[in-house]
Design goal:
Strand content: 15-25%
Largest sheet: 6 strands, parallel
Number of strands: 11
Number of helices: 10
Radius of gyration: 20 Å
Order of helices and strands: EHEHEHEHHHEHEHEEEEHEH
Protein backbone atom coordinates (compact mmCIF):
# COMPACT_ATOMS: atom_id res chain seq x y z
CA UNK A 1 0.00 0.00 0.00
CA UNK A 2 1.17 3.50 -0.87
CA UNK A 3 -0.67 6.28 0.93
CA UNK A 4 -2.63 8.99 -0.82
CA UNK A 5 -1.08 12.39 -0.09
CA UNK A 6 -3.42 14.86 1.60
CA UNK A 7 -2.51 18.03 -0.27
CA UNK A 8 -2.70 20.94 2.16
CA UNK A 9 -1.68 23.46 -0.49
CA UNK A 10 -4.61 22.65 -2.78
CA UNK A 11 -7.04 22.72 0.13
CA UNK A 12 -5.60 26.06 1.27
CA UNK A 13 -6.13 27.50 -2.21
CA UNK A 14 -9.82 26.49 -2.17
CA UNK A 15 -10.36 28.07 1.26
CA UNK A 16 -8.46 31.16 0.15
CA UNK A 17 -10.80 31.65 -2.82
CA UNK A 18 -13.86 31.34 -0.55
CA UNK A 19 -12.44 33.89 1.90
CA UNK A 20 -11.48 36.25 -0.92
CA UNK A 21 -15.04 36.11 -2.30
CA UNK A 22 -16.60 36.79 1.12
CA UNK A 23 -14.28 39.72 1.81
CA UNK A 24 -15.09 41.19 -1.62
CA UNK A 25 -18.84 40.88 -0.91
CA UNK A 26 -18.41 42.54 2.49
CA UNK A 27 -16.54 45.42 0.90
CA UNK A 28 -19.26 45.90 -1.72
CA UNK A 29 -22.04 45.74 0.88
CA UNK A 30 -20.53 47.61 3.85
CA UNK A 31 -17.62 49.54 2.28
CA UNK A 32 -15.26 48.06 4.90
CA UNK A 33 -13.10 44.95 5.18
CA UNK A 34 -11.89 42.97 8.24
CA UNK A 35 -8.73 44.21 9.94
CA UNK A 36 -6.27 41.79 11.54
CA UNK A 37 -4.03 43.49 14.09
CA UNK A 38 -0.80 41.87 15.28
CA UNK A 39 1.18 42.81 18.39
CA UNK A 40 4.90 42.08 18.49
CA UNK A 41 6.87 42.80 21.67
CA UNK A 42 10.61 43.04 21.10
CA UNK A 43 12.42 41.52 18.14
CA UNK A 44 12.49 37.83 17.28
CA UNK A 45 13.57 36.40 13.89
CA UNK A 46 10.98 33.58 13.85
CA UNK A 47 8.22 35.99 14.88
CA UNK A 48 9.28 38.38 12.10
CA UNK A 49 8.89 35.55 9.56
CA UNK A 50 5.35 34.77 10.79
CA UNK A 51 4.43 38.46 10.61
CA UNK A 52 5.66 38.62 7.01
CA UNK A 53 3.61 35.54 6.06
CA UNK A 54 0.51 36.88 7.83
CA UNK A 55 0.74 40.23 6.03
CA UNK A 56 1.22 38.56 2.65
CA UNK A 57 -1.70 36.16 3.22
CA UNK A 58 -4.00 39.00 4.31
CA UNK A 59 -3.11 41.01 1.21
CA UNK A 60 -3.92 38.05 -1.03
CA UNK A 61 -7.52 37.77 0.25
CA UNK A 62 -8.19 41.49 0.77
CA UNK A 63 -8.05 41.58 4.58
CA UNK A 64 -6.31 44.65 6.05
CA UNK A 65 -3.27 43.95 8.23
CA UNK A 66 -1.73 46.12 10.91
CA UNK A 67 1.39 45.46 12.99
CA UNK A 68 2.11 47.17 16.31
CA UNK A 69 5.73 46.72 17.38
CA UNK A 70 6.26 47.40 21.08
CA UNK A 71 9.75 47.68 22.61
CA UNK A 72 11.29 44.82 24.57
CA UNK A 73 11.12 47.02 27.68
CA UNK A 74 7.29 47.23 27.56
CA UNK A 75 5.87 46.19 30.93
CA UNK A 76 3.16 43.55 31.23
CA UNK A 77 0.75 46.21 32.52
CA UNK A 78 1.45 48.38 29.47
CA UNK A 79 0.83 45.43 27.15
CA UNK A 80 -2.50 44.63 28.83
CA UNK A 81 -3.59 48.26 28.53
CA UNK A 82 -2.66 48.24 24.84
CA UNK A 83 -4.67 45.04 24.26
CA UNK A 84 -7.66 46.61 26.01
CA UNK A 85 -7.37 49.64 23.72
CA UNK A 86 -7.56 47.33 20.68
CA UNK A 87 -10.46 45.42 22.27
CA UNK A 88 -12.46 48.69 22.32
CA UNK A 89 -11.48 49.73 18.78
CA UNK A 90 -14.40 48.91 16.45
CA UNK A 91 -12.10 49.02 13.43
CA UNK A 92 -10.09 46.03 14.70
CA UNK A 93 -11.64 42.66 13.75
CA UNK A 94 -9.00 40.31 15.11
CA UNK A 95 -6.01 40.47 17.45
CA UNK A 96 -3.02 38.16 17.31
CA UNK A 97 -0.24 38.23 19.88
CA UNK A 98 3.06 37.20 18.28
CA UNK A 99 5.09 34.70 20.27
CA UNK A 100 7.41 34.48 22.04
CA UNK A 101 6.85 37.35 24.46
CA UNK A 102 9.75 38.64 26.59
CA UNK A 103 10.44 36.49 29.66
CA UNK A 104 9.06 39.09 32.09
CA UNK A 105 5.56 38.70 30.61
CA UNK A 106 2.85 36.12 31.27
CA UNK A 107 1.95 34.97 27.76
CA UNK A 108 -1.16 33.07 28.82
CA UNK A 109 -2.46 36.05 30.79
CA UNK A 110 -1.91 38.35 27.83
CA UNK A 111 -3.77 36.01 25.46
CA UNK A 112 -6.63 35.75 27.95
CA UNK A 113 -6.91 39.57 27.89
CA UNK A 114 -7.98 39.52 24.23
CA UNK A 115 -11.77 39.79 24.07
CA UNK A 116 -13.41 36.54 22.84
CA UNK A 117 -14.93 38.13 19.71
CA UNK A 118 -11.46 39.27 18.51
CA UNK A 119 -9.55 36.19 19.66
CA UNK A 120 -8.54 34.87 16.22
CA UNK A 121 -6.16 32.33 17.77
CA UNK A 122 -9.01 30.77 19.75
CA UNK A 123 -7.08 30.84 23.03
CA UNK A 124 -9.45 32.81 25.26
CA UNK A 125 -11.02 30.53 27.95
CA UNK A 126 -14.47 31.55 26.70
CA UNK A 127 -13.72 30.27 23.18
CA UNK A 128 -12.08 27.14 24.55
CA UNK A 129 -15.20 26.60 26.64
CA UNK A 130 -17.42 26.74 23.56
CA UNK A 131 -15.20 24.07 22.03
CA UNK A 132 -15.89 21.90 25.09
CA UNK A 133 -19.62 22.42 24.47
CA UNK A 134 -19.18 21.36 20.84
CA UNK A 135 -20.19 24.71 19.31
CA UNK A 136 -17.02 26.78 18.76
CA UNK A 137 -16.92 30.02 16.80
CA UNK A 138 -13.19 30.73 17.09
CA UNK A 139 -10.77 27.85 17.73
CA UNK A 140 -6.97 27.35 17.54
CA UNK A 141 -5.83 27.62 13.92
CA UNK A 142 -3.51 24.59 13.79
CA UNK A 143 -6.16 22.31 15.26
CA UNK A 144 -8.68 23.63 12.73
CA UNK A 145 -6.20 22.98 9.90
CA UNK A 146 -5.60 19.39 11.04
CA UNK A 147 -9.34 18.72 11.25
CA UNK A 148 -10.00 20.18 7.80
CA UNK A 149 -7.29 17.94 6.31
CA UNK A 150 -8.82 14.92 8.03
CA UNK A 151 -12.27 15.92 6.77
CA UNK A 152 -10.94 16.25 3.21
CA UNK A 153 -10.31 12.49 3.05
CA UNK A 154 -14.08 11.89 3.20
CA UNK A 155 -13.56 9.16 5.82
CA UNK A 156 -16.31 8.96 8.46
CA UNK A 157 -14.70 9.33 11.91
CA UNK A 158 -17.70 7.89 13.79
CA UNK A 159 -16.37 5.41 16.35
CA UNK A 160 -12.90 5.37 14.79
CA UNK A 161 -9.94 4.70 17.08
CA UNK A 162 -7.90 7.92 17.01
CA UNK A 163 -4.58 8.41 18.76
CA UNK A 164 -3.51 12.01 19.32
CA UNK A 165 0.17 12.32 20.24
CA UNK A 166 0.69 15.63 22.03
CA UNK A 167 -1.64 17.46 24.42
CA UNK A 168 -0.86 21.15 23.94
CA UNK A 169 -3.51 23.87 24.25
CA UNK A 170 -3.11 24.87 20.59
CA UNK A 171 -3.22 21.42 18.96
CA UNK A 172 -3.65 18.23 20.98
CA UNK A 173 -6.38 19.29 23.41
CA UNK A 174 -8.56 21.19 20.91
CA UNK A 175 -8.24 18.39 18.31
CA UNK A 176 -9.42 15.90 20.93
CA UNK A 177 -12.42 18.13 21.69
CA UNK A 178 -13.22 18.40 17.96
CA UNK A 179 -13.16 14.61 17.71
CA UNK A 180 -15.69 14.45 20.56
CA UNK A 181 -17.89 17.32 19.38
CA UNK A 182 -20.85 15.24 18.16
CA UNK A 183 -23.16 13.33 20.50
CA UNK A 184 -23.64 10.46 18.05
CA UNK A 185 -20.87 10.84 15.44
CA UNK A 186 -17.75 11.22 17.60
CA UNK A 187 -14.52 9.28 17.23
CA UNK A 188 -12.90 7.37 20.11
CA UNK A 189 -9.74 9.34 20.92
CA UNK A 190 -6.73 8.35 23.01
CA UNK A 191 -4.38 11.17 23.99
CA UNK A 192 -0.68 10.43 24.44
CA UNK A 193 2.02 12.73 25.81
CA UNK A 194 5.51 12.77 27.30
CA UNK A 195 4.45 10.65 30.29
CA UNK A 196 2.79 7.95 28.14
CA UNK A 197 4.27 4.48 28.60
CA UNK A 198 4.74 2.33 25.48
CA UNK A 199 3.68 4.93 22.93
CA UNK A 200 3.85 2.41 20.08
CA UNK A 201 1.10 0.26 21.62
CA UNK A 202 -1.26 3.23 21.29
CA UNK A 203 -0.18 4.38 17.83
CA UNK A 204 -0.41 0.84 16.38
CA UNK A 205 -4.05 0.69 17.47
CA UNK A 206 -4.98 3.94 15.74
CA UNK A 207 -7.13 4.01 12.62
CA UNK A 208 -6.39 7.74 12.60
CA UNK A 209 -3.07 8.99 13.96
CA UNK A 210 -2.54 12.70 14.66
CA UNK A 211 0.95 13.69 15.81
CA UNK A 212 1.77 17.15 17.19
CA UNK A 213 4.89 17.03 19.34
CA UNK A 214 7.74 18.79 17.52
CA UNK A 215 10.20 15.89 17.60
CA UNK A 216 11.60 14.71 14.28
CA UNK A 217 11.46 10.96 13.68
CA UNK A 218 9.23 10.26 16.70
CA UNK A 219 6.80 8.03 14.79
CA UNK A 220 8.38 5.32 12.66
CA UNK A 221 6.72 3.05 10.13
CA UNK A 222 6.45 0.07 12.46
CA UNK A 223 4.43 2.22 14.90
CA UNK A 224 1.62 2.76 12.37
CA UNK A 225 -1.39 0.52 11.77
CA UNK A 226 -1.81 -0.74 8.21
CA UNK A 227 -4.23 1.55 6.37
CA UNK A 228 -4.28 4.30 9.02
CA UNK A 229 -4.81 7.98 8.23
CA UNK A 230 -1.77 9.96 9.40
CA UNK A 231 -1.97 13.70 10.11
CA UNK A 232 1.52 15.01 10.89
CA UNK A 233 1.38 18.44 12.57
CA UNK A 234 5.05 18.58 13.56
CA UNK A 235 7.44 21.02 11.89
CA UNK A 236 11.14 20.42 12.57
CA UNK A 237 14.37 21.66 10.98
CA UNK A 238 17.00 18.93 10.67
CA UNK A 239 20.32 18.57 8.79
CA UNK A 240 20.33 16.97 5.34
CA UNK A 241 22.48 13.81 5.46
CA UNK A 242 24.22 11.82 2.73
CA UNK A 243 24.07 8.04 2.23
CA UNK A 244 26.68 7.49 4.93
CA UNK A 245 24.78 9.60 7.47
CA UNK A 246 27.10 12.60 7.42
CA UNK A 247 25.68 16.16 7.21
CA UNK A 248 25.65 17.71 3.73
CA UNK A 249 27.34 21.12 3.77
CA UNK A 250 26.49 24.22 1.75
CA UNK A 251 28.99 26.50 -0.04
CA UNK A 252 29.82 28.24 3.25
CA UNK A 253 30.55 24.96 5.02
CA UNK A 254 27.35 25.05 7.07
CA UNK A 255 25.00 22.04 7.29
CA UNK A 256 22.13 22.14 4.81
CA UNK A 257 18.77 21.98 6.58
CA UNK A 258 15.38 20.58 5.61
CA UNK A 259 11.91 20.68 7.11
CA UNK A 260 10.38 17.40 8.32
CA UNK A 261 7.48 16.35 10.52
CA UNK A 262 7.25 14.15 13.60
CA UNK A 263 6.53 11.09 11.44
CA UNK A 264 9.20 9.33 9.34
CA UNK A 265 7.40 10.00 6.06
CA UNK A 266 9.38 7.55 3.91
CA UNK A 267 8.38 4.67 6.20
CA UNK A 268 4.84 5.82 6.97
CA UNK A 269 3.83 6.31 3.34
CA UNK A 270 4.02 2.52 2.79
CA UNK A 271 1.72 1.77 5.75
CA UNK A 272 -0.90 4.53 5.75
CA UNK A 273 -3.94 4.98 3.51
CA UNK A 274 -3.69 8.78 3.68
CA UNK A 275 -0.87 10.97 4.96
CA UNK A 276 -0.05 14.68 5.18
CA UNK A 277 3.38 15.74 3.89
CA UNK A 278 5.70 18.14 5.72
CA UNK A 279 5.99 20.71 4.32
CA UNK A 280 2.78 21.01 2.29
CA UNK A 281 0.30 19.67 4.82
CA UNK A 282 -1.02 21.19 8.04
CA UNK A 283 1.30 24.21 7.88
CA UNK A 284 -0.09 25.23 4.48
CA UNK A 285 -3.56 25.49 5.94
CA UNK A 286 -2.83 27.06 9.34
CA UNK A 287 -2.47 30.67 8.12
CA UNK A 288 -5.64 30.25 6.04
CA UNK A 289 -7.48 29.22 9.22
CA UNK A 290 -6.22 32.45 10.82
CA UNK A 291 -7.77 34.39 7.92
CA UNK A 292 -11.00 32.44 8.23
CA UNK A 293 -11.08 33.15 11.96
CA UNK A 294 -10.57 36.86 11.23
CA UNK A 295 -13.57 36.80 8.89
CA UNK A 296 -15.62 34.87 11.47
CA UNK A 297 -14.63 37.37 14.18
CA UNK A 298 -15.66 40.29 11.96
CA UNK A 299 -19.12 38.77 11.32
CA UNK A 300 -19.53 37.93 15.02
CA UNK A 301 -18.84 41.56 15.96
CA UNK A 302 -21.29 42.79 13.31
CA UNK A 303 -23.98 40.56 14.86
CA UNK A 304 -23.37 42.04 18.29
CA UNK A 305 -23.73 45.60 16.95
CA UNK A 306 -27.02 44.94 15.17
Amino acid sequence: MVAKIIDGKSLAERFEEDIKREVRELKERHKVVPLLTAIQVGENPSSAMYVKNQRKSCEEVGIDYQLHQLPETTSEEELLKFIEKLNRDDKVSGIILEMPLPSHMNARGAQMAITPTKDVEGMNPSNMGMLVYGSPRLAPCTALAAMELLKSTGVDIKGKEVTVVGHSEIVGKPITLFLLSSVMESATPTVCHIATRDLASHTRNAEILIVAVGKAGLIKGDMIKEGAIVIDVGINRVPVRDETGNPVLDNEGKPKMKTVGDVVFEEAVDKASYITPVPGGVGSLTVIMLLRNTLTAYKWQMEKRE
